[in-house]
Amino acid sequence: MNVPGRAVGLITLMNLAYLPIAMRQLLIVLLGHDSTGSFATAGAASAACGIGLASTAPLTGRLLSRLGDRPVLLVTGLGHLLCLLGLAVVTEPAAFVALAAAAGLSTPPVLGSGRARLAVLVPAPALARAYAVNAVGQELIYVGGPLTVTLSLMLTGPGGALLAFAALGTAALVGTALVMPRPIPDGRPAAEPVFRSGRATVATLLGTHLGYTACIGAMWVLVPAFATAVGQPDQAGLLVAVWSAGSLVGGLLLARRGRPGSPGGAYLAFLGTLTVTSLVLPLPRTVPQMALALAVFGLGLAPWLAVTDEILARAIPAPRLAEAYGWLLTAGQLGIALGAATSGAVNERLGNDAAFLVVGAALVLALATALLRRRTLRVSAAAPRPVDPTPAPSRTPGPVARSGPVG
Description:
Elements: H1 5-22, H2 24-36, H3 39-67, H4 69-89, H5 93-105, H6 110-121, H7 127-179, H8 199-229, H9 236-257, H10 263-278, H11 287-298, H12 301-315, H13 318-350, H14 352-372
Helix pairs in contact: 1-6, 1-7, 2-3, 2-7, 3-4, 3-5, 3-13, 4-5, 4-7, 6-7, 6-13, 7-9, 7-12, 8-9, 8-13, 8-14, 9-11, 9-12, 10-11, 10-12, 10-14, 13-14
């Protein structure tokens, strides 16, 4: 069954709105060094931004259910825009770090809001493919985003690049808020904590997500370290692009063919695939060998994330789903920090080959957690979801009418 056009429009807009958030820490590092002359300040600002995001993600997710998507998205979007504008002009180190932290704190919960509303827009049989299409959209951001940053830097410098991304993201955020379907009440108080519903499932997903994101944090350190170790540091970007391209291919295959088996079974299968393919990462000795290993490793990334979203959508009542995504984001920020710190220390002491074992170890722990708690992943693949009763518009707004594969 095809994904409804209105859902594809929402996916397109929310991922465009997320683009400046996805590229924000890279831009903050580049702009921080350019504005203050200090990589120490730039690194502190990047860390402060990430901590701010991790701190408020569950709160803004809960506010979505209490106050509605549009007001929360628009108010946080305005605050975030003002912080980015301030970062583009400030040069005093302490002020730059403070504005970066404020940008993280005011991050619009656009992905959590959009993913939660997909469960309202999309009928149950098409839900898996809808989340697969969204995973493809996110991979396109991480493939095309750095290239766009590079082009922007050449044309305008770091400050102009930040402003351009802020303008695009704000316009897309407003579009997302306008096409967002209204929430469907399920008869429970909106303030009820998310963990009263699907508590065991959420706990399992948070535990495995922590291990997965520790693997991702390690990879962001170890792939450039590998390129440096083999004497080709300029190839680090190419290796990251190949890795992302593998994930993009995996997401497209899932969107085209649909999820194999039950949500829980697919979740374990994709996580197992990630774990097995990660074990070859210490073996390559040349850039082409590592590119092949990364392409294969990437194949399972987007599918696993898509199935994670689907399981949450089937386990959590719609009014509390955005908050659940907020907790997942917080766990992800913590995992990335843990993986980056651990892998960096191991790489420094034992070398790059041994450090890649951190990636495999993190995924083994995640898989072990999922297997031990596999009963909590048993959600009905045919569970009814509250579909938005508003008739779909005859045309999808703006540039989203010709979005990618929905078959």
